[in-house]
Q: What sequence folds into this?
């Protein structure tokens, strides 16, 4: 006789044990949801149908500084619904999920929460309905998204962008003004060059008949007085010829229409030509000219006429600014692979602040109201341009007032071979 067990019906004891296990796993679901709500990093607050704030989580309290007061009522304490909260809650109770746009809120606008650090906050809200056991909406929860840090950074970026845009606009405006100024200066410089060239030509036209008349008087003077007057006129005529020549040269150099006729030249030859050209001016002022030069040849590759003009202009300048009966010294020396010519006078000297300006066009020194020292202020400017065209340099030096000044030019020497 055998015994069999019925496996078609579960054992009630086993069923009970299984159910107890399930209930333990799902024990206190309300407590589980409360834990999630309380520790969520998203700020939450829940309102009932009458507008009372029932509960908020820790994230809400951290965001706003505290929970709303116990007697706070959304519909009562937000007159005029200035932030649209009451309206959004009403819509949520009508079973609608409502999203509000991001906005800034000032602490004074949130008196009911009293933000602890009194800072502005920026957030957006989501209003969503909560259902009861019968499925109807019994409460509304509001979730806040704090975007204060993001908006602050965005505003800072936008402010910096606006600042940089303003800087760029200012720079563009300045660049436009600068270009306009440069264009005006170029136009003024062009007109100046044209004026100098025209002036020189117009001044030169009467010189030929004047020179012819002086020559006739010199050949057949009617008296000793006429002879002396003729000598004065001839000397001034030569000065005018040189002055007009300088005007033409400075105009040609400025317009890039000046060419050098280069050849091998000994510095001694340049000095001699310059001495002859400046002799009338130096003699008329009663100056003594001392010339010191090396016995060895100093050969340069240059334009004899223009280099003699350079040295002559330095001699004329020294004669003009040295009191009558002064001494002018010209020294030619070697400095490595260059020749140096120095012209020193015993005049009043040059103020230190003017040493870098004496070679600028139209610059004049020590000119009195009577304009007795004359000149157009172009001689030294022409000297600088001609020396630089020869690959050389020119500079001025001066000691204490009354100790005179020295002008030096340095020119590259030709190789011995």
A:
């Amino acid at each position: 006789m055998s015994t069999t067990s019925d496996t078609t019906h579960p054992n009630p004891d086993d069923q009970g044990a299984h159910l107890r296990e399930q209930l333990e796993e799902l024990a206190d679901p309300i407590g589980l949801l409360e834990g999630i709500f309380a520790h969520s990093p998203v700020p939450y607050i829940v309102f009932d149908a009458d507008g009372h704030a029932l509960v908020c989580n820790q994230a809400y309290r951290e965001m706003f500084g505290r929970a709303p007061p116990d007697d706070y009522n959304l519909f009562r304490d937000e007159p005029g619904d200035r932030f649209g909260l009451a309206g959004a809650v009403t819509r949520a109770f009508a079973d609608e999920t409502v999203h509000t746009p991001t906005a800034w809120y000032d602490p004074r606008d949130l008196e009911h929460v009293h933000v602890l650090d009194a800072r502005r906050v920026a957030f957006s809200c989501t209003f969503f309905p909560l259902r009861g056991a019968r499925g109807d909406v019994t409460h509304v929860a509001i979730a806040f998204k704090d975007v204060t840090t993001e908006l602050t950074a965005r505003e800072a970026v936008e402010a910096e962008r606006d600042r940089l845009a303003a800087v760029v606009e200012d720079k563009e405006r300045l660049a436009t003004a600068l270009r306009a100024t440069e264009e005006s200066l170029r136009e003024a410089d062009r007109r100046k060059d044209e004026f100098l060239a025209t002036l020189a030509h117009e001044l030169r036209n009467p010189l030929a008949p004047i020179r012819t008349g002086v020559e006739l008087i010199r050949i057949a003077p009617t008296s000793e007085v006429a002879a002396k007057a003729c000598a004065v006129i001839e000397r001034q005529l030569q000065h005018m010829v040189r002055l007009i020549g300088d005007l033409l040269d400075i105009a040609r150099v400025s317009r890039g229409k000046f060419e050098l006729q280069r050849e091998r030249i000994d510095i001694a030859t340049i000095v001699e030509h310059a001495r002859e050209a400046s002799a009338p001016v130096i003699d008329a002022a009663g100056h003594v000219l001392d010339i010191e030069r090396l016995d060895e040849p100093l050969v340069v590759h240059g334009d004899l006429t223009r280099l003699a003009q350079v040295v002559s202009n330095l001699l004329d300048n020294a004669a003009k600014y040295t009191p009558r009966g002064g001494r002018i010294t010209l020294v030619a020396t070697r400095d490595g692979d260059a020749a140096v010519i120095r012209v020193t006078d015993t005049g009043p000297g040059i103020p230190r602040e003017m040493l870098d300006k004496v070679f600028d066009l139209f610059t004049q020194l020590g000119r009195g109201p009577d304009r007795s020292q004359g000149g157009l202020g172009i001689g030294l400017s022409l000297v600088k341009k001609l020396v630089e065209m020869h690959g050389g340099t020119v500079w001025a030096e001066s000691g204490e007032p009354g100790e005179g000044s020295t002008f030096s030019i340095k020119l590259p020497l030709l190789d011995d071979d």
The longest strand covers residues 121-131. The two ends are 143 Å apart (CA to CA). Confidence is low (pLDDT under 50) at residues 1-5, 367-372.
